[in-house]
Amino acid sequence: MSNEVIFGTIFIALARTFIAIPGQFIDNAAKAKIDMKLRRLIWKSLMNMPLSFFDKTKAREMVSRTTSDTVNVSSFLMTSLLPQITSLYSIIMTLMIVNEYDRRLAVSFFVLIPLVALVAFIQGRLNFKAVSEVTKSNSKLTQFLAERLTNIPLIKVFANEEKEDIRGKEVISKLYKSQVKAVTVTAIFRPVISIVESLQTLVIVGLGIYYVPRGAFGIDVWVAYYLYAKDLMLRVNSIVSLFSAFKASQGATERISRLLEEPSEEYRKYLIECEAKKDEAKKEIIFENISFGYGDNNVLLDVSFRVPAGKVTAIVGPSGSGKTTILSLVERFYKPEAGVIKLGDVPVEDISLAGWRRKFGYVAQEMALMSGTIRDNILYGIDREVSEEEFQRAVAAADVMDFVREFPEGFDTEVGEFGSKLSGGQRQRIAISRAILRDPEYLLLDEATSSLDAYSEHIVQKNLDGLMKNRTTIVIAHKIATVVNADQIIVVDSGKIAGIGTHEGLLKTNEIYKGFFDIQSQRQFACQS
Ligand SMILES: Nc1ncnc2c1ncn2[C@@H]1O[C@H](COP(=O)(O)OP(=O)(O)OP(=O)(O)O)[C@@H](O)[C@H]1O
Q1: Does the entry feature the keyword Membrane, yes or no (predicted)?
Q2: Which of 324, 450, 496, 497 to mutate to test the pocket of ligand 1 (most atoms within 8 A of CB)?
Q3: Cβ(452)–Cβ(425) under 8 Å?
Q4: Are 414 and 404 in contact, with CB atoms under 8 Å apart?
């Protein structure tokens, strides 16, 4: 019996050590794999979300969904849940083995287990609350820092450094206080846990002192019981702490599930294969009784018009009247609430979104760039081979050479985060050269030359005119020259069509257009004089 107990105990201890080493490796590798799979799933889902999703979601929240929430889930699965299955098995086996040694020793566990479980439960709850508080304060600090650091010019312009300093200190202090709270919980529970451990030892030792001299069992059984009891208590402790780990991962799991359940753009729904049908560029784009709003903010009301194929349509109207929204609907960033948009006689809903977007070149007022070089940005989204000659032609047409020449590294110059190392006009010229390379069937320009100086504007406008020629183009225009030369002008006012016609026609019949023309003429005159 004696040898059996001693060798059995040593064998279990050794086996545990040898199993633990590869076990730990497998756990960590599996955890990393779960992280990777979850992150890929989230990323894919984010890439297929409609623009309306990003209107209501903070980018930083999506970053933490992809980085920290995934870790919470995988940690729960691999470091909390799975090991507890073996813990449960160990507890049952220990109870059975000790019961075989001596029933009275096994009964002692029914006193020790509830005691340890109760303390671990209370500690888990308090710890969970404290750690949640730290996580919350931490993400508030991250949000604060990211927002302020990307808006330094705004802070400087309003000389708000002192106020921001005070606000920053408050956010940092909040994180500090929550950390101290968490540390206090740990500090309070350390002595409580020590007391419980001492009690355990007292019971274990007490049982030995009482029963061994009376011959109930030998010292070997007593030592084995001691080792089993210690291990059992650790396992009970970790099973109970599963509760707080579950709570911590519950929030993350819910957030990830909610994200994955969001409806995607049905990007790959191919009802009509768009790419093959080049001749569709010959078809007009038709808005039939379109109404649309962002949430409760109604922007377009029963809007109907036709964009003739191969012609330039200019949209004019006061700020906030819905001009950019019309372009967004053409690009199918949003779905109209009422009415239908057609290409010829086909509703655009029946045309694959990927193919549809590939038909368009879009140059917005503010074009953000990706970090990388100027060349990377010019070629962004161009999924075909571009010869150096073609590249040079495009950059010359958009007057990009004018500023690239100034940089020692030329087209290999890094543009910085969001293209921050370039001016608005330089960023716009990159966007225009990108549109030229894309050679789209449809061109959407949102006041595309607004950030350029007079000289560059002249060159770029000349090339844009070339690009617009025989191409279906919708341009949101504030400049007289663009408007006057357009084949058709749509006047938008408070989300409604206030007039459609040519410059001469509207000038005679449309008061809003006449007002717009007069203001723009005066502005242009003021700029020139
Ligand atoms: N993503 C959005 N979410 C919520 N509201 C929006 C969004 N984009 C625009 N709006 C609102 O829709 C209305 C029309 O905006 P839109 O950008 O279409 O006007 P616009 O005529 O192009 O203006 P501007 O000439 O100043 O660029 C505005 O009241 C604006 O606040």
Answers
A1: yes
A2: 324
A3: yes
A4: no
Tens of pLDDT, residue by residue over 396-442, are: 888 888 888 889 989 999 988 777 788 877 888 888 888 889 888 89
Ligand 1 site: residues with CB under 6 angstroms?
A: 55, 294, 297, 299, 317, 319-325
Closest C-alpha residue for ligand 1 atom 5: 294
Question: Please, what's the b/e burial string for 444-470 (b: 16 or more CB within 10 A of its CB; e: otherwise)?
Answer: bbbbbbbbbeeebbebbbebbeebbee
Ligand 1 atom closest to 52 (CA): 1
Domains and CATH numbers, the chain: 2-261 (1.20.1560.10), 280-528 (3.40.50.300)
Mean pLDDT of the 229-239 span: 84
> CB under 8 Å to 369, separation ≥6 — which residues?
377, 415, 418, 419, 422, 427, 430
Span from the CA of 324 to the centroid of ligand 1 (angstroms): 7
Protein residue with its CA nearest to atom 10 in ligand 1: 294
Percentage of residues in the chain having pLDDT higher than 70:
92
Mean residue pLDDT of the chain comes to: 84
| Global pTM value | 0.73
Compute the distance between CA of residue 410 and CA of residue 400 in angstroms, rounded to an integer: 10
DSSP notation for 44-65: HHHHTS-HHHHHSS-HHHHHHI
On whether the CB atoms of residues 425 and 399 are closer than 8 A, the answer is: no
Nearest atom in ligand 1 to the alpha carbon of residue 328 is 18
On the CB side of 23, CA atoms within 13 Å amount to 11
